[in-house]
Amino acid sequence: MTRAPIIFLIGYRGTGKSATARALAARLAWSWCDADELLEERFGKTIRQIFDDEGEAGFRDKEAAVLDELAGRRCWVIATGGGVVLRPENRAKLRTGVTVWLTAAPATIWERLQADATTAERRPNLAQGGLAEIEELLRLRQPLYEACADWMIDTTEQLPEHVAERIAAWLQGQGDPNIP
Ligand code: S3P
Fold first, then answer.
1. Which of 21, 28, 67, 171 is surrounded by the most beta carbons within 10 Å?
2. Residue 82 C-alpha to ligand 1 middle, in angstroms?
3. Phi then psi for 4, rounded to 5 degrees?
4. Domains annotated on the chain, with CATH
5. 102-138 residue pLDDT tens
6. Counting atoms of ligand 1 from 1, which one is nearest the CA of 18?
C-alpha cells in the first residue's frame, strides 16, 4: 500500500523517538517535529501542568488535536508521545503514513528516563511509577503499537544515529514512491 509521505515514530517513553526523528529527518532531508514539544507550545503549558489541571483525559484530547494537525504535513518525521496509540482515532491517523515502532528493554527505558532532563515536566506518572509502571504499560500497550506499526526496531543497544540508519535502509527496501 502506498502511504502519505510522513513517518511517525511510535513507542514507549525513552525508546529514543525524538533523537531518532531528528537523525532520520536529516538523512531524508525532511523536516521533523516532537509532538509533545508542539503540544506544550500550542497550549502554553508543560505536560505535567496539563495533567495537574485537567487530568490525563485533558492531555489526551490535546494530544489528539496535535496529531490531527501533524497528520496533514508532507515530508515530515514525527516523534509521537508514548500514549498516542491509546485512542482508536489516533491509530487510524498513524496508519495514513509510515509508522515505525521503537522498542527497548524495560530496564533500559527506566535508565534513560532517569537520565533525561525533560522527564520531570514531560512525563508525569501514569500508574505506580518506576520500573513496575513501565513493565505494566508496555504489556498493555504492546498490542496497540503492534496494530499501527509497519516495522519495529529494538533500540536497546543502539544510538539514535544507528537506529535512523536502519530505518532509512528499511524504507528504501519498501519501494514506496512517496518515501525516500
Ligand atoms: C506519555 C508519554 C510522553 C508524554 C506524556 C504521556 C505516555 O511522551 O506524551 O507524558 O502516555 O506514555 P514520550 O513518549 O515522548 O515520553
1. 21
2. 4
3. -65, 150
4. 16-172 (3.40.50.300)
5. 999 999 999 999 999 999 999 999 999 999 999 999 9
6. 15
